[in-house]
From TrEMBL:
Keyword tags: ATP-binding, DNA damage, DNA repair, DNA-binding, Hydrolase, Metal-binding, Nucleotide-binding, Stress response, Zinc, Zinc-finger
Segments carrying motif RadA KNRFG motif: 244-248
Biased composition, class Polar residues, residue ranges: 41-59
Reported function: DNA-dependent ATPase involved in processing of recombination intermediates, plays a role in repairing DNA breaks. Stimulates the branch migration of RecA-mediated strand transfer reactions, allowing the 3' invading strand to extend heteroduplex DNA faster. Binds ssDNA in the presence of ADP but not other nucleotides, has ATPase activity that is stimulated by ssDNA and various branched DNA structures, but inhibited by SSB. Does not have RecA's homology-searching function. Plays a role in repairing double-strand DNA breaks, probably involving stabilizing or processing branched DNA or blocked replication forks.
Positions in coiled-coil regions: none
Domain RecA family profile per the UniProt entry, residue ranges: 56-207
Gene Ontology molecular function, alphabetical: ATP binding; ATP-dependent DNA damage sensor activity; damaged DNA binding; hydrolase activity; zinc ion binding
Protein name: DNA repair protein RadA
GO cellular component: cytosol
BP terms from Gene Ontology: recombinational repair
Species of provenance: Rhodococcus maanshanensis
Region feature (Lon-protease-like): 343-444
Record's comment describing the protein's domains: The middle region has homology to RecA with ATPase motifs including the RadA KNRFG motif, while the C-terminus is homologous to Lon protease.
Length: 444
């Protein structure tokens, strides 16, 4: 039975109880079960999807083309994006470029950059070095979440950056800074802010030693987009890789080059992974890998040397060592390329990582070329997965791979059988096994 309550049983305050209309319990309806409980009157009625205006949620470009490519066109109003990466990879530099371009695009736009790891002076020094100073970019060195909300009310930005979510503190939530409880509560509060105000929020996150996003797993479920910022400390190449994206493809990749004066987009990264020279040398082969939906040319280099040790050395860089060992075993067993008593070194050019099986055939050809000391002719690109029986299997996206190779001047492709018609001006040789591939290639 409903009755009047003057005092709240939880907080003890008088006159704070508000009447809310509640529908009759579903269980009281004919044919309904009591397990379903009661229903609440909705505050707003359900709307036919055809009557919902989708123009207000269209993505707005950030002004950084490679980042927009991964985001699916730009930042959607009210979205929350998590950018995770190792310390020093360039996350803060990238987002400084984002807020600078954001403020430049429209006089009505302003960006608020909240840093909990550095002082405002340190961020200003980096902005001076990267030429990212703009009058509509606001800085706040703050780690208290309530104060951050106060800055948002004062500045009224159209873009909010929080660097980083693990350094923020919610005073009314138990737990240490960066702990599971704190990170979950802070992310939930910032997500609610984004959804209610329409302000896109970019969060910087830390990663563990295994490369995973630090914090609770629920953190990745709360946000709309998860991006990983990757890069080798010995290389200037940086990649933003989409892991989760509610507004676009989740397997896109954006390429950047980190310099002393900032970070720049690399719209054509294939040239970074090729060693440009007039003539080929023994032990090299070029392949095309698919990084997400993006075809990238990569060069595999191999060196076979005489060994005086009972256990010859195997050194691998940029590839899966287990995959390299398998290809070496297939070469020796199926093609008579005896390398079991040789030292074998295999590497990629430019810090590229070749992880998909489509690079197997290029690796095998490079090792055979180094073993016989015979260079492949220029203009040849090699694609295919190698099986334990020595067969060459088909790979996905051959048309896109060959189109990229043709654009960069390659004229001959060695591909698995039934790979389709090559682009105009390119000759394709189809092979069924590794022995055919080595016979087809001149001097290999």
């Amino acid at each position: 039975m409903a009755k009047w309550v003057g005092r709240c049983p939880d907080c003890g305050s008088w006159g704070s109880i508000e009447e809310v209309a509640v529908l009759a319990a579903v269980a009281s309806r004919p044919g309904a079960t009591a397990a379903r409980g009661a229903s609440m009157v909705p505050t707003s009625p359900a709307t036919p999807i055809s009557q919902i205006n989708g123009t207000s949620t269209r993505a707005k470009p950030t002004g950084v083309p490679e980042l927009d490519r991964v985001l699916g066109g730009g930042l959607v109003p009210g979205s929350v994006v998590l950018l995770a990466g190792e310390p020093g990879v360039g996350k803060s530099t990238l987002l400084l470029e984002v807020v600078h371009r954001w403020a430049q695009r429209d006089p009505q736009d302003r960006a608020l950059y909240v840093t909990g790891e550095e002082s405002a002076g340190q961020v200003r020094l980096r902005a001076d070095r990267t030429n990212s100073v703009h009058e509509r970019v606001f800085l706040a060195a703050e780690s208290d979440l309530a104060t951050v909300f106060g800055h948002v009310e004062q500045v009224r930005p159209t873009l909010l950056i929080v660097d980083s979510v693990q350094t923020m503190l919610a005073a009314d939530v138990e737990g240490v800074v960066g702990g599971v409880t704190q990170v979950r509560a802070i992310t939930s509060a910032l997500t609610s802010l984004a959804k209610s105000s329409g302000i896109p929020v970019l969060l910087i996150g830390h990663v563990t030693k295994d490369g995973a996003v630090a914090g609770p797993r629920a953190l990745e479920h709360l946000v709309d987009v998860v991006l990983h910022f990757e890069g080798d400390k010995h290389s200037t190449l940086r990649m933003v890789r989409g892991v989760k994206n509610r507004f676009g493809a989740a397997d896109e990749v954006g390429c950047f080059e980190l310099r002393e004066d900032g970070i720049e987009c690399v719209s054509d990264p294939s040239g970074l992974f090729l060693h440009h020279r007039d003539d080929t040398v023994p032990g090299t082969a070029v392949t095309v890998t698919m990084d997400g939906k993006r075809p990238l040319l990569g060069e595999v280099q191999a060196l076979v040397a005489t060994s005086h040790n009972p256990s010859p050395r195997r050194a691998v860089s940029g590839m899966d060592s287990a995959r390299v060992s398998m290809v070496l075993a297939v070469l020796e067993r199926r093609c008579g390329v005896k390398v079991s008593d040789k030292e074998v070194y295999a590497a990629t050019v430019g810090g590229m990582r070749l992880t998909e099986p489509s690079a197997d055939l290029a690796l095998a050809v490079a090792v055979a070329s180094a073993f016989k000391d015979a260079a492949l002719p220029p203009g040849v690109v090699v694609l295919g997965e190698v099986g334990l029986a020595g067969e060459v299997r088909r790979v996905t996206g051959v048309d896109r791979r060959l189109a990229e190779a043709k654009r960069l001047g390659f004229t001959h492709a060695v591909v698995p059988r039934d790979s389709g018609t090559p682009p105009a001006g390119m000759r394709a040789t189809e092979v069924t096994n590794l022995g055919e591939a080595l016979r087809v290639l001149p001097r290999a």
